[in-house]
Amino acid sequence: MKEFNITVPVKEYTYTELDNLSAILVEEARKATYRSYSPYSHFRVGAAIALDNGQIITGANQENAAFTAGTCAERSACFAAGAQYPDAKFVRIAVAARDGEGEFLADPVAPCGHCRQALLEFETRAGHDIPVLLVAKDRVYEMPSVKSLLPLAFTEF
Ligand code: THU
User: I need a labelling partner for 15 at 20 to 30 A (CA). Which of 26, 113, 131, 156 fits?
Assistant: First the structure.
């Protein structure tokens, strides 16, 4: 038997420490939470993706009376980006969320497993790591890549 650890380096920033692109993306993800349609959960999530063509594509969770027909902010953003700019590579991603009281989360938002898998496909397509910014009210975690959020991921068959 052999045991090993899988570790992930996380950078924690205050808002004033963010570089220009991250500051813009975090703000776009925060703004996107106001375009969430979430009458069932009241959990408002926004995502923003910077593309290598200079565009920033945003998404917000879109719920449905038939719950499973809805989708998360991250997938709404990445599929919109793929549909509009199929040849553009993702550069950086930010995700923000507000709770039922409308407050930004005290802790950085954790994307769901489906979204991690969906975003991973775009990282594979880009051919390089895509940093992911997980936004909280007063701080931001920067994950080095999508795959760092999904160790031992399924990427091909
Ligand atoms: N949600 C997202 O938009 N992104 C995530 O990563 C986690 C969950 C949405 C789905 C649903 O509309 C609401 O948050 C509650 O789960």
Answer: 113
CA atoms within 13 A on the CB side of 90: 34
Q: How far is ligand 1, taken at its centre, from the CA of residue 4, in Å?
A: 32
Instruction: Decide: pTM greater than 0.90.
Output: yes
Catalytic residue status for 101: no
Residue with tokens 């200079």: 54
Q: Strand 56-60: give its sheet, edge to edge.
A: 11-14, 139-143, 132-135, 90-98, 44-51, 56-60
Helical (H) or strand (E) element with 93: strand 90-98
Most informative mutation of 45, 58, 67 for ligand 1 (most atoms within 8 A of CB): 45
pLDDT digits (tens, 9 = 90+) for 74-131: 999 999 999 999 999 999 999 999 999 999 999 999 999 999 999 999 999 999 999 9
Atom of ligand 1 lying closest to residue 62 CA: 12
